[in-house]
Amino acid sequence: MSYYQDPEFDKLLPDPDPSFERPYTLVLSLDDLLIHSEWTRQHGWRIAKRPGFDYFIRYLSQYYELVLFTTTPFGLGEPVLRKLDPFRFIMWPLWREATKFENGEIVKDLSYLNRDLSKVIIIDTDSKYVRKQPENAIVLKPWKGDPSDTDLVGLIPFLEYIHTMQYTDVRKILKSFDGKHIPTEFARREAIARREFEAQQAVQKHKKHVPSGFGALGGLLGLDAKHLSMSPEGEINPSQAFAQGKMLQDIARERGQRNYEELEKQIRENGEQWLKEEKEAMEKAQKEMMDSMFGSFGGMFMGKKPEEQPKKE
Q1: 141 and 252: one domain?
Q2: Neighbours of 37 (CB within 10 A)
């Protein structure tokens, strides 16, 4: 029966909100990507958070709709996620119940996401889980608790660049990195592009024409300049930045880092209050739900109060 094979819903995510200005969706696994769990006789179960996790999700939350998609059941995974991400930068958690069971194996079928797959990237540690849409996947080696690991944070420049260039189909750029270590390969291509940009600047130093800063790296990545994300009001435009020797990705990183630092400032100043208010709201909602439930049960078992009989004179 399909009940035992398909996800619990045909649409795992609600329809996109037009006012939510993040055109891309980044889907993340949990075990051995964001955390690593170990059991020992001495300590029992212990969970380690991957180095750079907070920076990774907080920085990329300005560019991507963040989704957790894990094979862990809700009952086990939800308490872990609440400690891992108390401010809920990961907007939508999808648990074991949202996966598909096919030919005896669990699959994370992105076609159920209710998102345009040309704008979806999934990062996982097991190619079997993403075999339905391998063209959307970045598969990393499982993280086993190494505190010096940088592979997760190392993906940020690449993922930021995709957003900056407003690429129309992420699957094309992912294909160009197929079989390569993305942080290393992206850094290599960026270094080549920077050398070409600097050479162009030297040639054009005494001319009015300024090299674009886009063409070199954009060409290496197969991107189209017309889709790039322009500077917001109050920032120097790309032409001014190029004249200062900055490439397009330099502008994006400066902007992204400023936004991240402002976010961190807000968390330091208001984070405890946010969590307190959320806890109070949840407790209030739970109380109202329980009151409503007991009220319904009371009505079921007690029945209606009989109408009073008129007094005899």
Answers
A1: no
A2: 14
Residue 311 domain-assigned? no
Q: Which positions ≥6 away from 193 have C-beta within 8 Å? A: 216, 217, 219, 220, 247
Is the domain of 158 the same as that of 95?
no
pLDDT single digits (tens) 6-61 = 887 889 999 998 888 889 999 999 999 999 999 888 888 899 999 999 999 999 99
CA dist 261 → 133, 213, 254, 306 (Å): 35, 26, 11, 66
Query: Burial code of 222-252, b = ≥16 C-beta within 10 A, e = fewer?
Result: ebeeeebeebeeeeeebeebbeeebbbbbbb
CATH number where 65 lies: 3.40.50.1000
222, pLDDT greater than 50: no
Confidence of residue 223 (pLDDT cuts 50, 70, 90): very low
**Count helices and strands in the chain by DSSP H and E runs:** 8, 9
Range of the domain at 59: 1-149
Using CB atoms within 10 A of its CB, is residue 125 exposed (0-12), middle (13-18) or buried (19+)? middle
Single pTM value for the model: 0.82
132, 208, 241, 266 from 273: Cα distances, Å: 42, 53, 39, 11
Question: What's the number of domains the chain is made of?
Answer: 2
**Cα separation values, 208 from 198, 201, 203, 204, 243, Å:** 16, 11, 11, 7, 10
Residue 169 is predicted with a pLDDT of 98
The tokens 């008129």 sit on which residue?
A: 310
